[in-house]
Each structure stands twice: as structure tokens, then as C-alpha cells.
Amino acid sequence: MTEHKEGKNSLRTRYSIYLTFDAHTEHSIEHVRKSLIGVPSMAPHLTLLVFDDTDRKGVLEKFERLISGFEAFPLKLEKVNSFSAKRNVLYIEPLFSHILQSMYVRSLEIFATSVIVHRYRAMAHWHPHVTLAKHMSP
Question: Is the pTM of this model over 0.85?
């Protein structure tokens, strides 16, 4: 989980829930990302959920509930896709296995009282993914 403050005077903090990969998978994704954008700013990961909240302690407690009982699991990275032409995000779409679906639904339930601020993060547009590059020109 990562935290990002939204503006100087904002009471909300942006949180991202990331799942990390084994070394071999990370190296493979990193190789593709470097060919697209050079040296990426952070390690490859699957973004499970992004949201804003004002209650840091509550978020940490909910995060503990989310990861309770979960262990590493196999994940098949299925195809390359993109989010909206306006944002130009190139990503790898994982196969939505029973385990991944369970973790995603559980995260939505646990963090249901948090705020999903951007329309593109709404359920109809968002799904877990591995970002390869952002703001790519066509």
C-alpha cells in the first residue's frame, strides 16, 4: 500500500494497493517497460485499487483485514490493452482468476466507505492491471 497526499491543504490521502511479483516476472515486465519509457520510477506491480480517505488509522486497519489469510498466488498476465485515448495508459491485463477476483471484490467491500475520486476509477472503467506506460503518444 502506498500513500500520496493530495495537495497542501487536503485532508484526504490517496492510497494505492499494489501486489508485487516474483523476481523472474518482475524482471520480464521491467524489460518491456524500459523499452517503452526508459527507466521506470517504481518496480512493476499489479494495481489492485486506488482510493482517497481521511482516516489513516482506519485505512491501515482495513488493509490488515484485506491481507489477512492471503498468500502469494499464481497470476497469468493475459494481454496488453490501454485505458482511454485521453490518458493513454498502456497496461497488461491479468486473467481475472478466482483468487484475483476474490481479492478485488474483498478490497471493494472493505474500502467501500473510502472515496474513489476520478470517474475513470469507477467500477465500470477500472480493473486490476499492470501499468507499462502512461501518457504515451499515439
Answer: no
